[in-house]
Amino acid sequence: MKILILSILMLIACYHDPSIAQCDEETGIRAANEQNSSLAYQSLKNCENDPNASGEALHYLHSLIFFDGQGHYQSFEARMDHSFKLECKAARKGYIVAIRWFGSVYQQGDSSLNIIPNEEVSECLINMKKTSLKYADPIDVSICFSLISKGGADSECRSDS
After folding, report:
1. Distance (Å, rounded) from C-alpha 28 to C-alpha 6?
2. Residue 1: inside a domain
3. Residue 10 in domain
4. How many Cβ atoms from other residues are within 10 Å of residue 2's Cβ?
5. 3-state secondary structure of 136
6. Structurally, how many domains does the chain consist of?
7. Residues in contact with 37: Cβ distance below 8 Å, sequence separation at least 6, in sequence order
8. What pTM, to 2 d.p., does this model score?
9. Residue 89 neighbours by CB under 8 Å, 6+ apart
10. Is 2 domain-assigned?
């Protein structure tokens, strides 16, 4: 009887629920920097659901989906929409590369993203002060995104939209 109980306990300890997917930032970012898009995507694809994921990981995931075509989507528009939302999350976490990307997009506008040029938003994002090598204060990002017209096609990054 003790052997049976011990065996059951060992099996339970070894069981890995495949529905509990991991965000492996370190492996994913390293793989992306080494041009291994497939490994990078597999390592980062669950980061969007991880509240502790860094803005850097979300930005890399955005790039893998948008530029490298990783992941499966029903349409190009669905791919762009998902990618855009990931970049919003990265910027909202204060990742400076994502913030500067949005600054550029709002400076020139982007018809494929339904973003019209907005000089006020662009300048706010481009001139944002860093708090560390790779990050700015997320509160400052929220202030810049709050300048986006509420309800417009380009209001997806607003916290209240």
Report:
1. 37
2. no
3. no
4. 6
5. strand
6. 1
7. 31, 64, 68, 70
8. 0.81
9. 48, 55, 58
10. no
